[in-house]
């Protein structure tokens, strides 16, 4: 028992909140996928993100974060961590000079998403890792939007996080998260005396770990299909004159960057956005698409069915309206998580009919843009 408490008893399990065989199996599989030494699974994506930031920062410390991140993470950094005197500066992560200028002597963490939620901005992970090393910071990357397509640790990230709730589990029937990193950092998170994961208690349930591990086994096939379908639709929407954002489009400002970072066989991912012009039009279109069984109006992503939502009034509603405008998050933006449809040409035809019906597209004139 003494050795187990000290972490020196291989094969012995201290207590289920600390580790269990099923959680370790899932963690090891995800660590192998991300190319890190090990990993710690958590009860949710937020249950992975929040302990990491609390482990790396103490009162008086500072974080430089991308301003386009998941709304919950944004709210945590903007509203919650200041209670502990941890301050965050939000920056345009695509501008390395702006990122570097925001670093202070108290900065401990550079935080970003490889592909950001919901604007699909792409972080230059190699460039950010050079900055992190130069200023002795930890580069923490949330890779939820681009599993397999991008491997942040191989590009220099110190810690890689996923919400397993999304593509990795892939069936919208669970919540889960993971922190992938060095053995030393994961041991710190799990330390019984001062480990944020151990003490805050966002441990994954073991039965859940075994079910996510089963789903993980098909992730490579699913990601290829998500990417294929999303690329197909993005190209069609753009050709129709819709303002379309997808990292696989040459018009995406970070297309060459994504191309240089990606594992090509998995494509540019399953997420794309279009601008419907206004929130009313966006809602009308989404309701019609749901009615036609093209997908669901839902805030999650990575499901077999296409999911769509207007982030400004849902997943990013934590971000004040003026800041949404500044970062380019318009009212009419629709975020799509493209599903595993077998006949994407047919899906496109029905989507186009919906767009024509609600007036997001017109027969000869494109109404928006
Ligand atoms: N990171 C990203 C990019 C997300 O989109 C989300 C949820 O939407 C999270 C983290 C949080 O994950 P969870 O809902 O599993 O806590």
Entry keywords:
39% helix, globular, 14 helices, Aspartate Aminotransferase, domain 2, 12 strands, 2 domains, single chain, binds pyridoxal-5'-phosphate, Aspartate Aminotransferase, domain 1, 369 residues, 7-stranded mixed beta sheet
Describe the protein.
With 369 residues, the chain is α/β, with parallel strands linked by helices. It folds into two domains: 2-216, Aspartate Aminotransferase, domain 2 (3-Layer(aba) Sandwich), CATH 3.40.640; 219-358, Alpha-Beta Complex (Aspartate Aminotransferase, domain 1). It is 39% helix and 15% strand. The protein contains 14 helices and twelve strands. The chain has helices at 2-5, 21-34, 46-56, 71-80, 96-102, 125-134, 183-190, 196-200, 206-216, 219-239, 255-261, 279-291, 321-327, 344-358; strands at 38-42, 62-66, 87-91, 107-113, 138-142, 159-163, 177-181, 244-245, 271-275, 295-297, 306-309, 333-337. The strands form two sheets. It has a seven-stranded mixed beta sheet, sandwiched between helices. Strand 4 (107-113), helix 6 (125-134) and strand 5 form a beta-alpha-beta unit. Helix 2 runs parallel beside helix 9 (206-216) and helix 12 crosses helix 14 (344-358). It is globular, with a radius of gyration of 21 Å. The model has no long low-confidence stretch (mean pLDDT 95). The chain binds pyridoxal-5'-phosphate. Pyridoxal-5'-phosphate binds next to loops.
